[in-house]
TrEMBL record:
<feature type="compositionally biased region" description="Polar residues">
    <location>
        <begin position="581"/>
        <end position="592"/>
    </location>
</feature>
<dbReference type="InterPro" id="IPR040893">
    <property type="entry name" value="RADX"/>
</dbReference>
<feature type="region of interest" description="Disordered">
    <location>
        <begin position="638"/>
        <end position="679"/>
    </location>
</feature>
<dbReference type="Pfam" id="PF17659">
    <property type="entry name" value="RADX"/>
</dbReference>
<dbReference type="GO" id="GO:0003697">
    <property type="term" value="F:single-stranded DNA binding"/>
</dbReference>
<feature type="region of interest" description="Disordered">
    <location>
        <begin position="1"/>
        <end position="33"/>
    </location>
</feature>
<protein>
    <submittedName>
        <fullName>RPA-related protein RADX isoform X1</fullName>
    </submittedName>
</protein>
<feature type="compositionally biased region" description="Basic and acidic residues">
    <location>
        <begin position="593"/>
        <end position="612"/>
    </location>
</feature>
<feature type="region of interest" description="Disordered">
    <location>
        <begin position="573"/>
        <end position="619"/>
    </location>
</feature>
<dbReference type="InterPro" id="IPR012340">
    <property type="entry name" value="NA-bd_OB-fold"/>
</dbReference>
Amino acid sequence: MSGELGQPQAGPSHAGLDFPNPERNRAGVPGGVIRRAGAHGRRSWIQKVLEQITDSPLQWVTPSEVVPVAVLAVQRYLLEDEPRDTIPKPPLYCYDVTISDGVYQEKCYLDPSLNFLVYKNILKVGIEMKISRVSCLYNEKRLGQGILCIDNVHCGETLEAISLETPFRNSAHEEVPERPLRGGKSHYLALWNNEDPYGDIWLTNKQPEEHNFNNTKIISLSHLEMTWANRRNFPALLVRILHKSKLRYYGKPDKKMIEPYQTFLEVADSSGTVSVIMWNALCPEWYKSLRVGLVLLLQDYSVKKSYPFRMQPLPVDPQIKLISTMEICLNLRDPPTNIIIIPEKQVKPEWRLPKLNHRFITRSELDDMPENHICDVIGILVFVGRVQRSKKKENREDFWSYRWIHIADGTSEQPFIVELFSTSQPEIFENIYPSTQSMTYFVCTQLKVVRNDTQVPKLLYLTTTNESRVFITGHRGQPYTNDTKVKNFIHWIKTRTDSEEVKNTVIGGYYPYPPVPETFSKYSSSVKVESLLTAISEVRKEIEDLQYREQKRIAIQGIITVIKYIPHASATESASASETLRNANRPSTSQAARRENQSQERDNNNKRHQDDDPMSSQCFQTACTSLSPTKKKRILQGPYAKLVPVPQPETSGQTKGNKPDVPSIFQRRESASTSTAGKARKTISDRWESQLWREKKFGLIDHLHYSHVYPESIPRKFIFEQRKFLTEQFNSQPAKYIPPEGRPPNLDDFKSARSLGHFEVTILGLNHEIAIDVAFLPMYCPEDLRTSQIDTLLTCMNYSCVYPQDGPGNDTLAGPRALAGDIIKAASKLDRVHIVGILDICNLGNNKVEVYLHRIYSPTNTS
């Protein structure tokens, strides 16, 4: 077995089917033990299908009995070109699907024609699946072996629980490390991106070891720079790691490399800093064990001329020379590199290795930081957005994974807004949630400032770089703990045992960031796309091409013809919601199943959520007390809702006009009792329909309905006791099934962080042939619209304006309902007006797609 693992071959691997063959000695065949169902046990459907294949003259069969099986794993890998492939193809990712029939588990190959089911997250772990056609792919280099291929399936509902106790029919599928069924690639990739290390090939067991330097010759980096071109053998390097990049996977079908990975380490000694490139199989062996600050002894490395177009990160000490003429290469062979981690206690002062110097800034300092400035931040997480994906290049299968987070540090009302891309630390990226305890703090290094002060609203946020690292546990012993600003933050957080920032935390939901500029001409110059405008006839294809959790922004032209206000369902806003969730494991599994089935039926029919019931047409109290002018503040869209700004005194030298136009940290006002819903109500129209729509709606050739707002898109108030469930809901779908702990709650049971409802907007194409329904979500509470200059539909939508609730007696829906009335009145001014709409299209997986209206450009603000 070990010999075959060392020599992977194209075609079906050893870990496949093992068919009866009278000419072979089964005990000596490298295929693992083939288990047979006992005479007294339940008959395995998988085994019956295999018998059908062996008896069939064809290479495929339709099972005589289609029995539901459970999906336990969906694993991705790169299939290298096989001998018959003469023309190189772009990367082709294949999927192995592990199924269970209750008796055995079997790893199967998914036919590439069904890959779209994985792209859309329809075929996923934890569901019931019916396989209606299977085939066999034989390995012609091995006797009597092949793999089971899934050719046609029907994906069903999510199962409440699946047993993991059933054994594999073929024990080769249980071997460690796991190997793909096909091709010569030795490992699986992460399911949704290529940056994250995935699987059991990634080791974590490298430890520091004492080294005897008596017979070790050391060369400085500056000396090596001057002499490397004339050397054949290089003395050892003694260096400290200053930066560590995320992983880069460069596998291609025509590359015969087992583990095609690359990572960069920026290392330094007293004479300079240089880039070290770790290649291929060394990455799985060493990547997870190396961290910033470690001291390394590098032997048997190679040196080459540096790549001219790579930008090195800035040195931590400006006094250290930046060596950019050469690169150090570490390989498993040619020559085999020797890496030793030196214990910190053995590091001598006379080595003069550089110390780590961090660039921590506070939120109050961020406003003065220039574009592209590199910095580090520390704080508590007050908002953690859902994981999203963006395509690296059009017409390719590679994606970036990222999420938006808010970090508060107590120095400003505003949080840090951070675009957090995967940093090859999935154990952190997939397990971050808002801070609920004073000592839970979050550190992110090597962030880049993104700002644009010329647009309205002003743009200011941080984004990760190639060298960014994230820390959320294990702060003790980290070099940054001695930084003055870190000490100040820790002192501040220790004194705030019951802070508003910790109590009012939010997770998940649709997050419309970054905002677009105030004019279409500025928007045009800020985006990098082949075609600036998308024809409304092409919107359907744009939506259908989206993959799971992919979010894309497009611009269309049209005419707004219908606006309807949908209030948020008050049932999920009850005061007892939090307490109910803390005891969420009490409902019966049948109740949970009924809730899930009902939710799925609503999704499949593309109907309105709970908001769109008979209550949505009822009328609500409209009284809304205006904020005084001193309390007014305009806020952008964001994940918080029903939030009231904390009044702050004006500081000297600062006016309202130069305050950063970014989301703040707020004090939340508790919801009024839901009993007020029964009070007298005043009739307000919640719908506007143009005369043009009445004339054209029955003659359309296509009407796209994407105004539904799914539960996953509503930001939820974070509950620590349900952190595992909430984290799973807003993470990407896992590659392997994880059994739930107890009976999981329903996402609708969690209290929304916003109770503002949403608008359904119908946009008619300029040719009056196609229309699309989209959703618009107001997110923040700025000043009272009735006393401000924001009094048109366009500005209401552009700034997501809603009325703040003021006074304990006001109905929770009074402000938003009053806003709805104002928007309906203003909408009549848009009859037959041509607009440009900026749309965010989001694929949530499992045939759930949403389209949000992010901004409207009218003829007055398109230039």
